[in-house]
UniProtKB/TrEMBL annotation:
The keyword Transferase applies. InterPro entries: Kinase-like_dom_sf, Prot_kinase_dom, Ser/Thr_Kinases-Pseudokinases. It comes from Gonapodya prolifera (strain JEL478). This is Kinase-like protein. Signal peptide: none annotated. It holds the Pfam family Pkinase. Residues 23-291 form the Protein kinase domain.
Length: 291
């Protein structure tokens, strides 16, 4: 059963979930740089995706887990994947979110045999993504790692943005910082804790703070960000543009960028991007006159 936060008026006030409440399946939904996403069943009836993160090699810290959790949990847009709660026991901490039956956007679009129908669905998904990103920016949050893999499709064919591990929270230079944590202290009364709320300030005089050493996916980064000029909402707009290209053509972006390239060859590619040199036009791209 797939449900949203509006279906959990009582449970949604609590975000600390006990590991015993979740039954894990053997179905792996994905694997990232810091952990694995598995399918599970929460309280015997709710289909969930369980993102487990590891802290053993230093690539992901407790501080970063806290950052991702506090940003994600406080988001209430229908175009952002809800966070049901977190599990903070054992060596792996976990995020619980709704299971999306249609998977990621690229995989979903690849199922369409008719190009016209696929392009109609693509436009619909892009509108949903834009709505989700507009909401994030209105809350003074930069996603900082937008790409097709971060777009999931629900059972109704609507897109939701997910994965806030790289998100940056902005604040006015004149205002107090956003609290560094909203994870309640562990206690025997966890189940009675109220849902913490963060009010993000407006976007006047915004600065953004990068947490941890991880910084995103270079293929989707703007030249300014690649050059180390900071992270702004403009970088999300750039990433959205590359995402549009990827979803519309279903072709790899920067196909010449391969894992086998040397560091020198990779650096040369990024230098071309930063110097405004155009990427080769994908052979599979449709004629703009027909778009």
């Amino acid at each position: 059963m797939e449900i949203g936060r509006e279906d959990l008026p009582g449970l949604w006030r609590f975000w600390e979930i006990q590991e015993s409440e979740v039954t894990f399946t053997q179905e792996k939904l994905g694997k990232g740089g810091v952990g694995t996403v598995m399918r599970g069943l929460w309280q015997g009836q709710v289909d969930v995706a369980v993102k487990s993160v590891e802290f053993k090699d230093g690539s992901y810290s407790y501080k970063e887990f806290n950052q991702e959790a506090r940003v994600w949990y406080n988001m209430t847009s229908r175009r952002l994947l809800p966070l049901y709660g977190i599990i903070t026991t054992g060596t792996e901490w976990r995020f619980l979110s709704p299971f999306m039956e249609n998977g990621d956007a690229m995989s979903h679009l690849a199922k369409f045999q008719d190009a016209t129908e696929r392009h109609k669905m693509t436009l619909s998904l892009l509108r949903d993504i834009a709505e989700g990103m507009e909401y994030l920016h209105s809350r003074n949050v930069v996603h900082a790692d937008l790409k097709p893999e971060q777009i999931l499709v629900d059972r109704n064919g609507r897109a939701v943005v997910t994965d806030f591990g790289f998100s940056k929270v902005g604040r006015s230079k004149q205002q107090e910082p956003v609290p560094s944590t909203i994870i309640p202290a562990a206690s025997s009364t966890t189940t009675s804790a109220r849902r913490p709320i963060i009010t993000f300030p407006d976007t006047t005089g915004v600065t953004f703070t990068v947490t941890g050493g991880r910084w995103g996916t270079p293929k989707y980064m703007s030249p300014e960000r690649l050059l180390g000029k900071g992270t702004t909402t403009n970088d999300d707009v750039y990433a959205f543009g590359i995402t549009i290209l990827a979803l519309w053509t279903l072709a790899p972006v920067y196909p010449q960028f391969k894992a086998s390239l040397t560091q020198e060859e990779q650096d040369a590619l990024w230098e071309n991007i930063c110097n405004g040199e155009l990427r080769p036009h994908p052979a599979s791209a449709p004629d703009p006159a027909h778009m």
